[in-house]
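Fold this sequence, please.
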Amino acid sequence: MESDWHCDFDSDPEYDDLWNVIIMRRTKEIRSRPKFFKLYDDKDFRDRFWISKKTAWNVLDCIRLQIEHKTKWNHALSPEQMLLLTLRFYATGSMLRTVGDLLGVSQSTVSRVITVVSHHIAQLKDHHIYMPKTEIDLKKSQRDFFKLAKFPRVIAAIDCPHVKIISPGGEDAELFRNRKGIFSINVQTLCDSNLRIIDIVARWPGSTHDATIFRNSQILCRLESGEFGSGIVVADSGYENNHFVIMPLMHVNTSAENLFKESHIRTRNCIERSYGVWKRRFPVLSLGLRLHLAKTQSIIVATAVLHNICCNNRDIMAPPLSNEIEDVVNNMINIPNNRNAESHTINNVTRKCLIDNYFSLL
C-alpha cells in the first residue's frame, strides 16, 4: 500500500504542480549599486537629494559609526547608501518600494534603514537645535532680530506647523485629526532671524491647541525662570500675551500702535519663512508620512536637524517645486485657526511698555 501511494502521488499532474510550487524558490540576485557621490556632480546630486554633497558628507561623518554594519555579509548596505536612501525618501515622500528601487533593495530594508538613520540624525538634536546659551549669544540674537524691523529684545519667533500623517489607529486616533479634517502632528518650533530652528517639540496630536503645547513645554519653564534675561518671543494671536511672549494687536488706535503692529508682523515673519524652506527642502513633511507614529516623530526632528545643518553650511537654495507640491506645502503651512485672541490679551504690561516707551518715540 505504501508503494502504491507513492506511485499515485508521482503520477498525478496536480500533485506535481503543487510540489514544484513548494520547492521552487526565487534565485537570489546581487545587483551592483551605484556610488552616487562619485556618479553625480553637485548639481545633479542636489537635484535628486535636495542637499549638497558637502552637507551630506558632514551628516555622514557624524553618524557613520552608529549606522555602519559590523560585517559585509549578505551584501550589506554601506553607510553612504543608507544615508542616501533616507535623503531620497525625505526629498520625494515616495512609497518605500519606490525609494528602494534607487539601490535595488526591498521595501522592508528601506523601512529599517530610514528608521535607523532618522533616529541617529535626530540624536544630533542637542548639537544643532538649541536656544542662545550665553549672554553674548543672546545679544547677538537680539541684534539680528532688530535688523529685521527694529523690534527690540526679541530672541525668537514661535509657531506650530502641522505635519500630515496617516491615522495612527486605536482609541485615540481622532485626537490627531486637526481643524482641517486631516490627521497630523502639531509641531512647535522656535526659530532665529536666520531661519534656524532653535527649539522643537514634535509629539502632540493635530487637534491640540498651540497654546496648550507651549504651556506644557520646557521652553516655557526656561523663559519663566529668567534664563534668557529680558529676551522676548514674538508669537501670533494663538498664544497668551505675557512678560516674555508678545502677540500682535487686534485693534490699532495710534501711530505708535501701528508701528508696533508693522514691526511685529515683519519680525515674526521669519518663522513662516523657516517653515517654507524646511518643507520645501523635505517635501515628505507636506505630502504626508505613512509610517508608524514613533518613526514619524524621529523623521520630523531629523529633518529639522538637517535644515539647521544646511543653514550653517549656507546650503539654503530651496529646490523648485511642482505646482501640486507647492499647493500642498502652502496649505499645510497655514491651517485656518478658530482662536479668540481677545481672551489672551489680559497681561499687556510688557507690550504696553514697549509701545509707550519705545515705538511712540520713533
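The first helix runs from residue 2 to 11. The CA atoms of residues 30 and 75 lie 8 Å apart.
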